[in-house]
Protein: LacI family transcriptional regulator
Organism: Phyllobacterium brassicacearum
Amino acid sequence: MRRPNMSVLAKEAGVGVSTVDRVLNGRAEVREDTARRVLEAAERIGFYATPLLRHRLKADLPQRTFAFLLQQKSTPFYKLLGEALQKATDECAGVRGKAVIEFMEDLTPGAVAETLLRMGKVADGIAVVAADHPNVTAAIDTLGSKSVPVVALVSDLTAASRAGYVGLDNRKVGRTAAWFLSNMLPAGSAVSIFVGSHRYLCQEACEIGFRSCLRERAPDFVLIDPVATLESDHYAFEATLDLLRRHPGLAGLYVAGGGIGGVLKAVKEAAGERVPTIIGHDLTDPTIHGLVDGTLSVVLSHPIEAVATQAVELLAQKSLQPKSEWQYMHHNLPLQIFTPESV
């Protein structure tokens, strides 16, 4: 199949070939709405010079560098989120954006705070996934005093000077997990919850919602104390085996933090024992495999592309405003739900 040429693009955009040539080569001024229509048509048909068209249309826009501080790249969710943030930055209409994606291996509050301050020297705005801690708060406040907006991504923070939050309503996420288990399991079932760390506000809210909903819908359920996985598949693997040994009648498990790969591996290794109904977070290759092979029953997921787009747009907006006009923006995005029959 021949790749679309300028004539095909002109027809798709409803303009003449000479107009496409002017947009592509910058030979003469073209109305912004016309140029935008040519770009949209190019994206639809897969025109070979689409990246050049994007560059031409952004030549007069302000340049901004956005830093995205994510957790370990070995975690499939953050690898996908990093890719989505890069794409959203490239496609941001208001600025010529440059994305700096940093996957943090050391997640201790001191290390995260140091990374925030280091990135603040080169970035016009930062989005970060972090546990809530005074060290992190102090770093965000310092950056705010220097007019560098910081957006809490996936997990909210308590720093008063943060520019906003982009993620889910995590209390609803936890309640949704409890709703599923209360409808899928018999009365009096024993269930447990795994969190990555007790300092992540997103996971704290998930646990609060989970407990609250169970109290309302299944007051006879036995809720075993939560287990922290430290966002690690290794720790989650060991914790799951230990939980199954100590509670052989465990009927349900809600994994609200990192480590789902370790949980699924442990459950498979304990195949001779009763397998609990498991609910996890975020649609990635491991959770898709878990749904398909029956180890995982439900996945409650962030809409990754929407999270990335909203985060970049918020950073672009704040970076173009004087600090005196900043207002905190809270963006709760719709939860996605996946089951074995929907993947």
Q: What stands out?
A: DSSP finds 13 helices and 13 strands in the chain. The chain has three domains: 6-57, 63-168+304-334, 170-301. The first strand starts at residue 63 and ends at 70. The two ends are 31 Å apart (CA to CA).
